[in-house]
């Protein structure tokens, strides 16, 4: 289970520059849903540094029961220049760009 979850993103000049990241606070045994701590806005570079340091990061969305569930994992782009959502076999996907956006 990931240690951190991204729930929203911010774009500047058409490029993602910030993410809303939370620590995973609680997970029920046998459940796909979990609770998150307070959000922090950090740069994409800071998020990449977390992943490079061995922290596990995922993308999360709200469920109908108002808990959170994993959409997919997040990994570094080649060369460590950014981040991307990845599917179950590690292939990049566009899930990061489908998260809610704040202004």
Summarize the structure.
By secondary structure, the chain is mainly beta. It has 1 helix and 8 strands, in the order ββββαββββ.
Textual characterization of the structure:
With 103 residues, the chain is mainly beta. The protein is 9% helix and 50% strand. The chain has one helix at 44-52; strands at 4-12, 15-27, 33-36, 40-43, 57-62, 68-76, 83-86, 92-93. The longest helix is centred in the middle third of the chain and has 9 residues, at 44-52.
Task: Give the tags.
single chain; 103 residues; mainly beta; 5-stranded mixed β-barrel; 1 helix; 50% strand
Q: Name the average pLDDT.
A: 91
The low-pLDDT segments are none
Number of helices: 1
Could you give the order of the helices and strands? EEEEHEEEE
Beta strands, count: 8
The multimeric state of the shown protein is single chain
| Helical/strand content category | mainly beta
Q: What spatial form do the alpha-carbon principal axes imply? A: globular
- Radius of gyration (CA) equals 13 Å
- Into which percentage range does the β-strand content fall? over 45%
Approximately how much helix is present in the residues? Answer: under 10%
If strands are numbered along the chain, what order do they take across the biggest sheet? Answer: 1-2-3-6-5
């Amino acid at each position: 289970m990931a240690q951190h979850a991204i729930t929203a993103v911010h774009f500047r000049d058409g490029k993602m520059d910030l993410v809303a990241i939370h620590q995973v606070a609680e997970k029920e045994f046998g459940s796909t849903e979990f609770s998150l701590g307070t959000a922090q806005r950090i740069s994409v570079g800071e998020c990449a540094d977390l992943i490079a340091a061995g922290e596990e990061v995922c993308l999360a969305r709200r469920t109908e029961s108002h808990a959170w569930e994993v959409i997919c994992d997040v990994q570094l782009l080649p060369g460590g220049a950014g981040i991307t959502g990845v599917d179950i076999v590690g292939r990049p996907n566009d899930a990061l760009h489908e998260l809610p956006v704040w202004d």
